[in-house]
């Protein structure tokens, strides 16, 4: 996923009196160095991000991503993002993604050690081709995340509901899944409830009802899941948030991992046991996800 474009954002230069938001951006060469060695995002992963899917230049679900960016900032005690400024940055970056599917990434870092300001930037890239995975599905393994379902309430400093830059654990879980001959992982709480995947939300089907783990269990509230639930409700299906024991994952009629760039990947195996995949239904979900969404 080669970067096509990068925009440095001055988060403190945007305020109610600044109508020239574009003057707070500086386009930089995405292949050239742009951060200082004192950056806390690189030293400590101390910052937050969003990855926004782009289809033929249209950024998907921008407001939901900006809401989550603001929520992550609040959880991390970062300055509240100036939403108009970020919306403008998304529009500029999305226009640079090129034809087909792309991804705009937004990053807000605590900034430079001992420095006065946070650091922020946006990038644009073309997306990998996920056609096969959307059609053929993925094999997942369940992995213990090591926290009980009530950990976020007891220990908010774990920042479990924030989309922080500290994804080393998520990447380690993916490597473990690959070691176990699977494509992806589903995290479980230490007390046996289903949470999310390292980079995606989980949706289960039970008859005509679709459920997803409640976002208060220390998981991200996925923008793709939110959008799909609206779509499913409009098609007459029931949707809901639940605390889901692992047995219900194994007993589901169907399951998907959903996320902004890969979109809906049907699960075809859980811990080595085959799961039914409905290719036509999954294709209808991905058709919806690929249509312009606001
Ligand atoms: N959960 C985690 C941990 C993620 O990293 C992501 C996306 O990257 C998601 C869920 C899905 O979120 P979205 O649908 O907004 O991409």
Automatic annotation (TrEMBL):
Record-level GO cellular component terms: cytosol
GO molecular function annotations of the record: 4-amino-4-deoxychorismate lyase activity
InterPro entries the UniProt entry points to: Aminotrans_IV (IPR001544), Aminotransferase-like (IPR036038), BCAT-like_C (IPR043132), BCAT-like_N (IPR043131), Class-IV_PLP-Dep_Aminotrnsfr (IPR050571)
Biological processes annotated in GO: carboxylic acid biosynthetic process
Keywords: Lyase
EC number: 4.1.3.38
Lyase in keyword set: yes
Protein name, as recorded: Aminodeoxychorismate lyase
